[in-house]
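Shape matters. Shown next:

___
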Amino acid sequence: MSVADPTRHEGGSPSFAADAARLLAEAERAVAEDRVADVPEQAVQDLLLAAVRLYAAKRDRGDSFPAFAADRVTATDVAITCVAMTEVVNLELFELALWRGWSNV
């Protein structure tokens, strides 16, 4: 997997983009080297929360872009994460499907 180029960003802070690219590279290294046990659960939760909040806010304001490139994650990665997120907010998958049909997201 390639690492995002921290010099490429659309608006916003160059340091924000660089920090995101650095964290992505560190996370990918931890997974590749089977060191995920070394990453605190709270850190994973904080990063996921930040990504979800930012993505939702940008989509809510009308921006339309994919969550990530399809070749960067597996269907299993997405399924595990989505199920965990829906459990946290007590959202059933059929409710998510209904919401998707009623919205412009």
About this structure: Residues 1-63 form one domain.
